[in-house]
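Human: My hope is that you can spare some time for a protein that puzzles me. I am handing you a single protein, as its sequence and its fold in token form. Could you go through the record with me and say what the backbone is doing? Take your time, and here it is.
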Amino acid sequence: MTRQEAMKLLGYKKLIQLADGLQLTTSAIAQWRDDEDIPDIREYEIRELAAGRTPKRLLKSSKQTVARPNN
């Protein structure tokens, strides 16, 4: 899957939308060339998002925000 195919699958028009969806930086997404396949793990995450599921890596990062007790 290319970057353009990924964006089309998710209905995104801008790199920042794809970056936000994958919780990556725009510069990381920009390194994926238009004519080359994206990394396999990112393709898996994109397919999960397209199917309405949250990839495990994204679940873990959302759970890392833990409230600190007031001292």
